[in-house]
Amino acid sequence: MLIFSPTTIRSVNPQPLPYLSFSHSISLPLPLTSPPTPSKSPHFPSFHINCIDAAQPFDYESHLKNRYIQSTSLKIAIIGFGNFGQFLSKTFLRHHTLLAHSRTNYADLANHLGVSFYADPHDLFEQHPDVVLLSTSILSTETLLQKLPFQRLRRNTLFVDVLSVKEFPRNLFLKYLPPDFDILCTHPMFGPESGKTSWAGLPFVYDKVRIGDEESRIKRCDNFLDIFEKEGCRMVEMSCMEHDKYAAGSQFVTHTMGRVLEKFGLESSPINTKGYETLLNLVENTKGDSFDLYYGLFMYNQNALEQLERLDMAFESIKKDLFGRLHQVYRKQLFGDNNGEVEKKRSLAQQLLGNGSLTEPPLDNVRQDGS
Predict the structure, then answer these.
(1) Could you tell me if 84 and 202 lie in one domain?
(2) Stated pTM of the model
(3) Spatial CB neighbours of 97, under 8 Å, sequence gap ≥ 6
């Protein structure tokens, strides 16, 4: 860095000249000889080198990146900092500020992760988060919403849920939240086990139940959804009603079969097949979830009971097929192969005519042969 300062020039009307400073990154050798004699012109000042320093480049790209991160960063408050809330926070923390509240004191764990923990929801809401994310159990959702101090939040706060059923929290949000609040119902269809290495390709279902028309509110919703899209999730937008219909046929059935096999006592063996390994993985993935979650899938999805009845009918149908085949085997062992004897007599009694048609012999001849 070259810093120049003007020398005083006597002229008819002397005026102080401003201090000039130039900064440019150059790589040129400096002359070792003495500098030339300064110009005597009254119109141009002479310069003297004060110091030489290396110019520091301005990282324009880094500056733009920081500005972009600040413009898209959200302050997210997680209500319910249990297993799933902690799982989500590890990804959210990459670009967003996180606050948390839970009935259990997770202060030490939250501080270790870099999350601000608040034991009192009043203190949490006074931080005015952009997004309030409900990561509670299905059974406790309504009781929680009845106790939250909404008056301490900004009037257009975005509320998001990540419950495994969708119509139930949607109706609760519309019932208890102030009308100015935005509502986004979501379901990350993965968990700490299935998404522990990557979220790429995993389905994320969402329904923009109520989002304001203001550009800032639309952008806030999009910034939240971008968290999952940038992680590679398969983004699926559908209504809460459609979600519950499909989830009853997939998620509820999956959890049911996993729990049935767990009750059955499925164990690994030295000769596991690929199919058997799949069943073991199913048990492993489902047994980590609480029974409250499974009960919530059954209780608060009106399609779950129908699926349970269909499973029961399918099991009974398979049993009938098995026992029906077994009945035929027992009958053959007890009474012999009567069907074979009948067919043998029929073939002996039939005669092949010249035109290729078959005809039964007269009954009289059969009686005579048998006499």
Answers:
(1) yes
(2) 0.68
(3) 73, 74, 75, 76
